[in-house]
Amino acid sequence: MTLAETTLSICIPTYNRAKALDRLLSNICTETEALEENVEVCISDNCSPDETQTIVKKWATKLQIVYKRNPKNVGFDLNVIGAVKLATGKFIWLSGDDDVFFEGAIANFLSDLKTIGNEDVGAIYLAGKEDKTCNNLDFEKFTLFQPENLPYLEDLSFMGCIAFKRDTALDVINKSIEVRDGKTYKTEFKTTVMYDFMHTYLFVECMKRSKLVGVAPRYGIRKIDDGNEFTQKRYIKMLLRHIEYVRHLRDYYGQYEALLPKKRYSRFLVSFFRYFLLYGTILSQNEELEGFYQLQYRLLYTMIKKEKRNDLLPFLEIMNRCRRNKLFIFSIVLAFKAFKRIKRNNIPEVGVKDMRAVSEEIYAAFKDEIDTLPEFQKDNYDEAFLDDCLSHMLYRTND
User: In CATH, which superfamily holds the domain spanning 3-228?
Assistant: First the structure.
């Protein structure tokens, strides 16, 4: 087999998720076994301490796998670059190690690639994620667009939605990215733009270097995202990084309207605020977690001031002063019901007369979660974590 015969490279950056990776490779094997085209699987292992190497060996006889293990954990961004550099296919499709492909997705994508011909297509967006509600596209066939005429792309932050031409991506990596002290700096901006979103950065830069962008409205990768142990600390970091990601899209790529969230930039700030109101109130009832509540309060206050969303400050202060009142907790949770934030509990909509009863029902529905919260104490919410969040994630400029 020659390099030119490889049509598609599925690139998977992985770390310490052997069980999820095993599921994904099984899924890829099922989806590619009847295909005529050659599809390779490129795995960049970020020095996993688990059974990742064993899982790769298990599937190496059934899949065309290119595998490299980093001598140390180099971080997410460099691991994505490592996976891309392993590829030999003309096009690369990125995948998280804890997601899976929808049935027929790989075959559909290969069919779409055949329609490109000699057109200059450097980046491709594939609708995907959990279900059809995540797809805002109003057409059904693979379509090529000029970058300035793209339809709104729902979620470029999800790695499974992103594919690009290998040669174009390598050009971005070689000419627009500089690695210093283990961090990836974007030479055009002289900063760490889109930290932890290397996949999105590569997509946007590949798009800028090409005349056309492909959009595939059929569903590609299903987001499962069960590879991480959830902690409140990790959730805060995730929200902060998303806030920074949206800010960078706005500030550095604002000319491409289709890439920007339809709602105003502060949507993630408001999301963090709502999250704080609900879980911050519940957490404050447990004196052992008072430190975590105070951390959330200081982070959110700083974010609101920096984003000049002073309209949120009165709500924050009311929350802080009334947080130990049980009826106040009920009111907060009811507000979330109005926002349909806790619809997963399947509590029916009711009139005002039944508010107290429903409040108690909702509070009971959260009881299991409340009972498990003390386990998050192991995260040690200290000043160092607060400084790290504020200095190195949320408002990074020239670190």
Answer: Spore Coat Polysaccharide Biosynthesis Protein SpsA; Chain A (3.90.550.10)
- Among the listed residues 336, 335, 321, 326, the one whose alpha carbon sits nearest the alpha carbon of residue 360: 326
d(CA 74, CA 45): 10
Q: Is the dihedral angle over the CA atoms 53, 55, 60, 65 positive or is it negative?
A: negative
Provide the sign of the torsion angle of the four alpha carbons 168, 170, 176, 177, taken in this order.
positive
Q: Copy the structure tokens of residue 204.
A: 């946007």
Contacts 24+ apart (CB under 8 A), 256-259: 256/147, 256/148, 256/150, 256/204, 256/207, 257/152, 258/150, 258/151, 258/152, 258/153, 259/150, 259/153, 259/156, 259/204
pLDDT < 70 stretches in the chain: 1-4, 129-136, 225-236, 239, 261-289, 291-292, 307, 315, 318-319, 322-399
Mean pLDDT of all residues in the chain? 77
| Placement of tokens 């210093």 in the chain | 180
124, HSE (Cβ side, Cα atoms, 13 Å): 29
User: CA 232 to CA 276: how far, in whole Å?
Assistant: 11
Q: What ranges do the domains of the chain cover?
A: 3-228, 267-394
Integer Cα distance of 92 and 105 in angstroms = 14
pLDDT for the residue 358:
46
**CA separation, residue 250 to residues 8, 72, 148 (Å):** 31, 34, 15
Q: What is the pLDDT, as a whole number, of residue 393?
A: 39
